[in-house]
């Protein structure tokens, strides 16, 4: 395996683990059973990749041709389950820590998959189509999270949560721009992922949100 291919694979595994942790923890918070925890751990970990492959015409999606990603997400969800069984307390402090872990893992997964998705589109022969590359990158990053939120009965994060999709657009665009400049791909990948993670964490800490329409509640 070439060095660049090995780094991309490592980044994908990192994203799978990050999203599997966030999905499994969310399932536990919603009091789902073991199957629900595993399902919600796997869904965000591979859902975005499936959407990416379908958009690029790569069928069957790669998760079915190389089940290592599903296997890693499965093991991660199982591990999270047993850790939470061991830590039975559900105090305010534990809930806060859980929320922080979900947020961090979600940011890592988003940043990783946005850049990997953009890179996949480039290597699929679409390097001259910046719009497609950036769009595929963002869909890869947010697609699994959208499915996770819909299954759990939440409005997807990208529509309401701390510039979620905007961070993905910035990371994908920045990675593509560095590709156009012919910069080192490993360096470009590191910068792209780091920017997305930084934007997500800063948006959460400073409570950055896009404008909303102020609607007054007419009920008395």
Automatic annotation (TrEMBL):
Alphabetical UniProt keywords: Cell membrane, Membrane, Transmembrane, Transmembrane helix
Domain Glycine transporter: 11-83, 104-179
UniProt xrefs under Pfam families: Gly_transporter
Transmembrane intervals: 6-27, 34-56, 68-87, 99-118, 130-151, 163-180, 186-206
Entry keyword annotation includes Zinc: no
Membrane topology, record value: Multi-pass membrane protein
InterPro entries hit by this protein: Gly_transporter
Subcellular location per the Swiss-Prot or TrEMBL entry: Cell membrane
Gene Ontology CC terms, in alphabetical order: plasma membrane
Family: Belongs to the UPF0126 family.
PANTHER family: INNER MEMBRANE PROTEIN, UPF0126 INNER MEMBRANE PROTEIN YADS-RELATED
UniProt protein name: Trimeric intracellular cation channel family protein
Organism field: Anaerosacchariphilus polymeriproducens
């Amino acid at each position: 395996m070439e060095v660049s291919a090995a780094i991309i694979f490592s980044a994908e595994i990192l994203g799978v683990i990050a999203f599997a942790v966030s999905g499994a923890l969310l399932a536990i918070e919603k009091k789902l059973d073991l199957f629900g925890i595993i399902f919600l751990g796997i869904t965000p970990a591979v859902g975005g990749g499936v959407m990416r492959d379908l958009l690029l015409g790569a069928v069957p999606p790669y998760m079915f041709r190389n089940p290592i990603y599903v296997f890693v997400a499965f093991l991660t969800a199982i591990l999270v389950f047993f850790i939470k069984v061991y830590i039975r307390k559900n105090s305010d402090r534990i809930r806060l820590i859980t929320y922080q872990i979900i947020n961090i893992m979600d940011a890592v997964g988003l940043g990783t998959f946005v850049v990997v998705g953009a890179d996949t589109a480039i290597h699929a022969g679409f390097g001259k189509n910046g719009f497609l590359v950036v769009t595929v990158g963002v869909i890869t990053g947010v697609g699994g999270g959208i499915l996770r939120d819909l299954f759990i009965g939440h409005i997807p994060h990208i529509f309401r949560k701390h510039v979620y999709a905007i961070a993905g657009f910035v990371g994908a665009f920045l990675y593509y721009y560095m590709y156009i400049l012919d910069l080192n791909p490993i360096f470009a990948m590191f910068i792209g992922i780091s920017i997305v993670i930084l934007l997500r964490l800063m948006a959460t800490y400073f409570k950055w949100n896009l404008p909303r329409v102020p609607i007054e509640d007419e009920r008395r």
